[in-house]
Amino acid sequence: MAGFLPRIYNAGMKPLEKTRFEKIRKNLVQQATGRVLEIGFGTGANFRYYENAERVDAIEPNPEMSKQAEKRIRKSKTPIYTYEAVAEELPFADNSFDTVVATLVFCTIPDPVKALEEIYRVTKPGARILMFEHVKMDQPLMGKTQESLTPVWKKLCDGCHLDRDTLDLVNRSPFEIVKVESYYGGLFLTIESRKPH
């Protein structure tokens, strides 16, 4: 079962990444500057796009995913340090990071509110939070479909919630939302927010 998620990821997500996903990731990650925290680096899909970061500290709780990232870490032009850790208990000091990157990961975090609290703790005042996530759709029928599929989907895909409203979670956090862009009819969003000074 341990290798199931990487196989699902490679079969389902990689073809999408070759197209528009790759462009969205690149545009988002290239904005990361200073000391960067990446939440849930998975197979390291973002690592090649860190062009303006001084260093990246990246967490991932699933060691099976981490193994697939090793080659991408070696190829990266930016120093990347990885940690087996969860977003709800970040192993970093307060006020450490200038930017946080999270792509297609908040759907799987068991306690996303706690994760946002931890991100708030470890970021400097004025830090940017750059997210690319799939979310619960506004259309009632699609939203209900996502809700009904989520229990089975969570079991198959490492706890992924199809119906998580990540934008609402960020809205209710202390972060200030700066910009939101919608893709695929609102199924995917990029969310840029900022920690107040």
Could you explain how this protein is built, in words?
The chain has 197 residues and is α/β, with parallel strands linked by helices. Helix content is 37%, strand content 26%. The protein has helices at residues 4-29, 63-75, 112-122, 140-156, 166-171, and strands spanning 34-39, 53-59, 80-83, 97-103, 123-134, 176-183, 188-194. The longest helix has 26 residues, at 4-29. The N and C termini lie far apart (44 Å). Mean pLDDT is 83; it is low at 1-12 and 149-156.
CATH class category label:
Alpha Beta
- Average pLDDT score: 83
Query: Quick one: overall form?
Result: globular
Question: Element order, helices and strands?
Answer: HEEHEEHEHHEE
Poorly predicted segments: 1-12, 149-156
Pfam families: Methyltransf_11 (PF08241)
Protein name: Methyltransferase type 11
Organism: Planococcus rifietoensis
InterPro entries: Methyltransf_11, SAM-dependent_MTases_sf, Thiol_S-MT
Architecture blueprint of SSEs:
Blueprint: H1 4-29, E1 34-39, E2 53-59, H2 63-75, E3 80-83, E4 97-103, H3 112-122, E5 123-134, H4 140-156, H5 166-171, E6 176-183, E7 188-194
Parallel strand pairs: 1-2, 1-4, 2-3, 4-5
Antiparallel strand pairs: 5-7, 6-7
GO molecular function: S-adenosylmethionine-dependent methyltransferase activity
Pfam family, one: Methyltransf_11
Keywords: Methyltransferase, Transferase
